[in-house]
Specification:
By secondary structure, this protein is mainly beta. It folds into four domains: 59 residues, SH3 Domains (SH3 type barrels, Roll); 70 residues, SH3 Domains (SH3 type barrels, Roll), CATH 2.30.30.40; 62 residues, SH3 Domains (SH3 type barrels); 120 residues, Immunoglobulin-like. It contains one helix and 28 strands. The strands form eight sheets. The chain has a five-stranded antiparallel β-sheet with strand order 6-5-4-1-7, with no helix packed on it. A hairpin with an 8-residue loop joins strand 2 and strand 3.
Length: 391
């Protein structure tokens, strides 16, 4: 005879069924979380943040295809660990959860050979430094933008400097990641401090030279890994004391240091001068090509109370570059004068008191013909600059 089914038995049966259902759901969720423990960055470079918020600090950023380990999820954000062991939060929308086997991506930034200066092989150990104590960014290219940050590292972190250029950038490695960092944030720990001293004897006269017309750096030691003591314009005279491989010990305007031999010329720069006095250039069509019969009106730079000749004059910038302004410095300083600006190819430029150098002047020598205004007299014609450069 079957046992009667009581109300108590039915309640126990329902309770057991509910318990088994809850247990099954928990196991399924656990298995699901385990299966989706890795994800892949998709949709471009994705930033890793310190907190699950778009206003939070950016720890680093990772390119499309980078695989990360997902630790947890909260409000559309995933707490993840990146291949370089940084832990933070990523926007869940830009993660693909189809990958379950994490692999370490290979960062291979390309060291440019142009537009960022000349690169030199260094292979030195250094440490990150910062005057404000803040973390320093590693970038995927040697330029500061808001989208090329691939790492953020604290002060004191050890780095390997692989290459360095003359535009203020270093190509470095930290752990297994390589990228670019501004050289001013790296202190070379393997460099022995050097205090350059002038040896006894007589040096050799030379001049600073650079094919691109930029300033030349004088360094503390014979290498790109030594600090910069000073920077001088091309054409500046120097004294060479000794030669140490690719570098020379020099004195430039009282500064004793090292300059790379490729930036030293032993040939004196030749700057053409005007020997005719007075000399009038060929004017544009709208202006008579003959010698003017009347001197154009000009505003004296001084009160003009004394009568006398223009004794001499000079230019306040003998090594002009595009965008700079050249002015005449007459003697005496209160003399009234006019000035005619022209180039070595005969091109008339201006009759203003000062001249603003334009891109069309690159490679040309600029001349100034200074004439005294009545009641002053005299002509100064031998004023010339070095060839115009692009700074």
């Amino acid at each position: 005879m079957p046992c009667p089914v009581t109300a108590e038995y039915k309640m126990k049966k329902r309770f057991l069924a509910c318990f088994l259902l809850v247990l099954w759901l928990c196991c399924a969720a656990l298995l699901s979380a385990t299966a989706v423990s890795c994800a892949t960055v998709q949709g471009g470079r994705l930033r890793l943040r310190a907190e699950p918020s778009y206003t939070s600090q950016i720890l680093s950023s990772y390119p499309n295809g980078t695989q990360v380990t997902v630790l947890s999820m909260i409000n559309g954000w995933c707490r993840v660990t990146a291949p370089d062991n940084l832990t933070g939060y990523m926007d869940q929308r830009y993660l693909n959860f189809g990958v379950v086997t994490p692999t370490v991506p290979v960062y291979t930034p390309t060291v440019p050979t142009s537009s960022v200066g000349t690169w030199y092989t260094v292979n030195q150990t250094g440490h990150i430094t910062s005057s404000n104590g803040r973390d320093v960014r590693m970038r995927s290219e040697p330029v500061v933008t808001g989208t090329n940050v691939i790492g953020l590292y604290p002060v004191g972190r050890t780095v390997t400097v692989l290459k360095r250029n003359d535009s203020g950038w270093s190509y470095i490695r930290i752990d297994k990641k390589e990228g670019f960092m501004m050289s001013k944030f790296i202190r070379d720990s393997s460099v022995t401090p050097v205090t350059p001293t002038v040896p006894p004897g007589t040096g050799t006269a030379a001049y600073l030279y650079a094919a691109n017309g930029r300033n030349v750096n004088v360094r503390r030691g014979p290498g790109m890994n030594y600090g910069i003591l000073a920077s001088y314009r091309v054409g500046t005279q120097l004294t060479v004391w000794t030669n140490e491989g690719e570098w020379s010990l020099v004195t430039v305007s009282g500064t004793v240091g090292y300059v790379k031999n490729t930036f030293i010329s032993y040939t004196s720069p030749v700057y053409p001068v005007i020997t005719a006095a007075p000399y009038y250039p060929v004017y544009p069509t709208a202006v008579p090509t003959a010698v003017p019969t009347a001197i154009p009106t000009a505003v004296p730079i001084g009160p003009g109370t004394a009568v006398g000749p223009v004794v001499s004059a000079s230019l306040d910038n003998a090594y002009p570059w595009v965008g700079c302004i050249i002015r005449v410095l007459p003697t005496p300083s209160n003399v009234g004068y006019t000035v005619v600006w022209h180039r070595d190819d005969g091109q008339f430029l201006s009759m203003e008191q000062q001249y603003s150098v334009s891109p069309s002047d690159v490679g040309h020598v600029i001349y100034a013909l200074v004439s005294g205004l009545p009641p002053y007299s005299g002509v100064v014609s031998q004023l010339a600059t070095a060839p115009v450069t692009v700074k």
